[in-house]
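Reply to dn_fold:

You asked what the input looked like. This is it:
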Amino acid sequence: MLLLTYDISDDKVRTDFSTFIQQYGERVQYSVYKIKNSNRVLSNISIEIKHNFLKRFKNTDSVYVFKVCEACKKQVLKFGSATYEDKDVVYL
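and this is what came back:
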């Protein structure tokens, strides 16, 4: 799993970045996304950021991509609605 988080000051750039990253993962919070890990996905994200976003970022903007290994995922503490994401839900 990849955990991507960003802090982008410009509203237009932030909206464009959010729209771009949504195609790869699930929004966890406003500027945090959970993405299924693969080398191809990480490469695509990196290339897109370098070619289309890096020149639009200001000096204060940042993007972090954390690789979370399978063993580490089991150690994640979850509270609130996050506790339900690993459980099966039945709708009637």
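The longest strand covers residues 2-7.
Hope that clears it up.
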